[in-house]
TrEMBL record:
This is Altronate dehydratase family protein. It holds the Pfam family GD_AH_second. Keywords: Lyase. Residues 16-83 form the SAF domain. The lineage of its organism: Bacteria, Pseudomonadati, Pseudomonadota, Alphaproteobacteria, Hyphomicrobiales. One of its GO terms (biological process) is D-galacturonate catabolic process. PANTHER family: ALTRONATE DEHYDRATASE (PTHR30536:SF5), ALTRONATE/GALACTARATE DEHYDRATASE (PTHR30536). Belongs to the UxaA family. SMART domains: SAF.
């Protein structure tokens, strides 16, 4: 009679006082060198040594929380006995910065992209209908739906679709300040994203976010690729829809002239996202995506990490990689802004992780952040950007955004991201337009259960596939999707409702 195999666990760093359960560990089972005193679900943590109350709990070689009671070897460690508290961190600005190797152009990987008149390269070819205010959102949707139902796009196979990008603000807000500037950057960022060939911006007419002001501030001249209209000036809903459709029909043959051509991977700007994270995220998909980001940087491209509340507690690992003290200090300044912002709202930075994150094994924001930061790889941090700010540096950069996935991704796309990778352990169903989203599952169970949503299984890292090999697989998938292969979320039709600009400030 064969002996039952011990449940598998993984120790992530020699200094850790916990292991992570790869398999569920039942009471009395031997795992990680100890005997389990409680049941430990897969993805959760098991103490390997005694941890006195008040002592740090260590995972990834970093503090993820502090014991709230005495913890014995074999105990399940989670919210019942481990809690977040602040502690000093050494930012060591630039200590780990280096001159990243970038391959010469002749050795860089290539993909098939759309070269735009301004020199940027798109991976998709959309026509966008932007609403300046929620009051024009329905009209923008009506236009897009009518065009898509009409069958006219069958005549233009190189156009990926006509998409309405609508939102919930644009009025009842201050006409200056942070909230207004964020919306302005986001609108213009989508209008100029290289995955968008032509834009119709539709307003009501009397809103705070005035189209004429935006045109003036950005020096916009209307033409074949960018036009505007308002419902009030045009004469109401029906006339605006009819005239808007006429304008879009005139844009279609112009947008359809774009043709894919071979371009270097240095033209890729990769948005790094995670959502529905679990205890495996920081072990499998996130570090594998980080390896892919490192490869992209080596090939001259750009990788954008974001979600500031979800690198909270791990920011010292990024400041060490900052190319200058100024870059590192800008990141810390955004961290301090978030501490103040959440406190004023009566919250705490540890309000994140979510219930789903905790069910998946993540106990504190410190633990979640250490895993999330792994998406950023190991290269030098070249810049820190405000939300939806145009990214103008090559290499690894950071953008300040909320942790909420659609809001964060909207900022990255506005910043210029033309492809996106999204890791998930609990099973996010996110998709994006105009930027294709590649979904990476942290574990084989969710990959198989949500096979129609997931593009790559990173769960096989737990079976022995190396992080480096998985990173190369992800990088190759990025090239394929950027060349026109549809991601799973594109096949499902996601992206029409995921334009979610960050709303900051009072709604009045």
């Amino acid at each position: 009679m064969s002996r039952a195999l011990s449940p598998r666990t993984v120790r992530l760093h020699a200094e850790d006082n916990v292991v992570v359960a790869v398999d569920t560990v039942d009471v009395g089972a031997s795992a990680g060198g100890v005997v389990a005193r409680q049941r430990v679900p897969r993805g959760h943590k098991l103490a390997t040594v005694a941890i006195p109350a008040g002592a740090p709990v260590v995972k990834f070689g970093q503090i993820i929380g502090f014991a709230t009671v005495d913890i014995a070897p074999g105990d399940h460690i989670h919210s019942h006995n481990c809690a977040f508290q602040t502690f000093d961190r050494d930012y060591a600005y630039g200590a780990d910065a280096r001159n990243d190797m970038v391959l010469p152009p002749e050795l860089q990987a290539t993909f098939e992209g759309y070269r735009r008149p301004d020199g940027k390269v798109g991976t998709r070819n959309y026509v966008a209908i932007l609403s300046s205010v929620n009051c024009s959102a329905s009209v923008a949707r009506f236009m897009a739906e009518a065009i898509n139902r009409s069958g006219v796009l069958a005549d233009y196979p190189t156009i990926d679709g006509v998409v309405p990008f609508v939102h919930g603000t644009g009025c009842g807000m201050a006409a200056s300040g942070e909230g207004f500037e964020v919306l302005k950057r986001t609108q213009w960022g989508y209008a100029t994203n290289p995955n968008v060939a032509a834009v119709l911006l539709v307003g009501l007419g009397c809103e705070v976010f005035q189209i004429a002001r935006m045109k003036d501030e950005y020096g916009i001249v209307e033409g074949d690729h960018f036009q505007t209209m308002t419902i009030q000036e045009t004469g109401g809903t029906k006339k605006t829809i009819e005239q808007g459709m006429e304008r879009i029909r005139a844009m279609l043959p112009i947008a359809a002239r774009a043709r894919r051509e071979t371009v270097p991977a240095s033209e890729l700007m990769l948005a790094l996202q995670c959502g529905g994270s679990d205890g495996y995220s920081g072990i499998t998909a996130n570090p594998a995506l980080g390896a892919a980001a490192d490869i992209l940087v080596e090939h001259g491209g750009t990788a954008i990490l974001s979600e500031t509340p979800e690198i909270y507690g791990a920011e010292h690992l990024l400041t060490r990689r900052a190319e200058s003290r100024a870059v590192g200090e800008k990141l810390v300044e955004r961290i301090r802004w978030w501490e103040d912002y959440t406190a004023k709202a009566g919250g705490s930075m540890d309000n994140n992780p979510s219930p789903g994150n905790k069910a998946g094994g993540l106990t504190t924001i410190l633990e979640k952040s250490l895993g999330a930061a792994a998406k950023g790889g190991t290269t030098t941090l070249r810049g820190v950007y405000e939300y939806a700010e145009r990214v103008d540096r090559k290499g690894f950069v950071f953008m300040d955004t909320p942790g909420y996935d659609p809001v964060a991704a909207t900022g990255q796309v506005a910043g210029g991201a033309n492809v996106l990778c999204f890791t998930t352990g609990r099973g996010s169903a996110y998709g994006c337009k105009p930027t294709p989203s590649i979904k990476l599952a942290t574990n084989s169970d969710i990959f198989n259960r949500m096979i129609d949503d997931m593009d790559i299984n990173c769960g096989d890292i737990l079976e022995g596939v190396s992080i480096a090999d998985k990173g190369r697989e992800i990088f190759n998938k990025i090239l394929q999707v950027s060349s026109g292969e549809k991601s799973k979320s594109e096949e499902l039709g996601y992206g029409d409702n995921e334009f979610v600009p960050w709303q900051i400030g009072a709604t009045m």
